[in-house]
Structures are given as structure tokens and as C-alpha cells.
From TrEMBL:
The keyword Signal does not apply. This is Tetratricopeptide repeat protein. The keyword Repeat applies. It comes from the Bacteria. It comes from Chelativorans composti. PROSITE patterns: PROKAR_LIPOPROTEIN, TPR. Pfam families: TPR_12, TPR_19.
Amino acid sequence: MRDITVTGAGRIRFSRLVLAVALAALVTGCSSGRGFGPTKTASVDPMPVGSVSAMTEPQLRATADRLGQSYVRDPKNKTVAMQYANVLQMSGRNDQALAVMRRLAIDYPKDRDVLAAYGKALAAAGELEPALDAVRRAQTPEYPDWRLLSAEGAILDQLGQPEEARALYRKALEIQPNEPSVLSNLGMSYLLQNDLRTAEIYMKQAAEAPGADSRVRQNYALVVGLQGRFAEAEAIAARELTKEQAQANVAYLRSMLAQNNSWSQIAQEDKRRRS
């Protein structure tokens, strides 16, 4: 919940949170998805995205240092560079991650795995138009990958094109039904437009779907908390975090919504939309 801000007009905006679920799968997900071949390396084993998201900050730093040393020895090693960039992004070092992926994209200008991860790095650094171009170039129209469709949708949401984004999410769900990351992104799309009730419907489906990870369930806790149901949000968050972390997140959410009467503005907009 740390990356959320609410404007004076009550419009909710997100930085990494909106893109995280959609784009995290691109580093390892595409190489095992349709139309992508596995990447082999003799020195570094593939590292599941979920294991990175569960790391503490000291663990992230240690992993970044280890991968950084491997990267310096062989910057053209695709697997090492992509894992290194992913850990850097999880550590908040987006500019450094983008530099790693930009160099790799020069070495592998037609590699779809690399283009997808490059798009992720661009989006995390706030360069949304170039990110959109990279993700679209990584896609194969005649054999589309649902992860890339979802990632493209998340970027379009950030660019203020929710209808186009939702069409892509639904297309992704046709390929991968009940996929929790796509359902969560669809919920985020409505959340960005302050349609909290519809957002909760999709977030709840995402959180209850097989394969839902911690980020998906925390997003569900977020949308519940944004509607003022703080005890329920804390209970959901406590399944993924320590009790202290869940309490701290909800306390932050309370204070954020209290600023500039933000909660009242959001509630009024949601009420007008339903009437």
C-alpha cells in the first residue's frame, strides 16, 4: 500500500502497484509460455518471480549483489541480466534495472523474452510509451501471449485508456481463463477510475483463483480498505504479512484517506457512479 496516492479530486493513481502484477510475470513467465522457448544457462538457474517477491530487503540486496557479480562477468548472459534487472526493480532501483535491460535489448534486438522484460523495465521507470512499444513488439499477433496482453493493458491503464486496457484483459482471459494476475489487473483498471465496487468483484475473484500469489491478495485487501472496511482489509492482509505489517499498512491507508478529506471525495464519486 505504500505506493498509493490520492489526488485532491479523489482520483486514485498508482506507481509500481498497478503494473507489478502484470509485468512481474514477463521476466520468467514468457519463457515458459506459448511461443517462447526456455532459456538455458550454465551458471545461473532460473529464479521464480514469486521467490523474489517474498524476499526481505536484506535478501534482495544480497541477491542483487550476487547477480550483479555474475552480470559484470558476462553482461550478455540473457538469464543473468533479466534476473538481475528483476531483482533491481524489486529493490526500487528502477533506473539501474532499465540500464541493464537497455543494454541487453541492444544485444538481443529481436528476442521476445528480452523485449518483454525491457518493456517491464521501461514501465517501472515511468517511460510508458516506449514500454508499450517494446511489449507490442514482443507480441506475436497470430499466436498471442496472455501475459503480454495483460501487460499491455496495464500500461494503457496508466496512459488513461481504460476501455482499450479492459478489452486486452478480457482477450487475455479468453486465452487463460480465471488467471488471477489478469483478474487483478482488470480490478485495478476499475480502481483507477474509482469504481470500487466493480474493482472488488474482480479482485475477490483473483484472490480466490488457483495460483493467486501474495501481491494479488494484497491488492484485494487494498480495495477493501479503500472502501473504509479497515478491519476486513487488515484480516486479508494479515494472511500475507505479519500482524504488525498488516496493521501498519492499514494505519497508513487510514491516514492517507484522511488527508484532504480524500475518503469523502472517493465515497461521493462512487455513490454518484452507482446512482
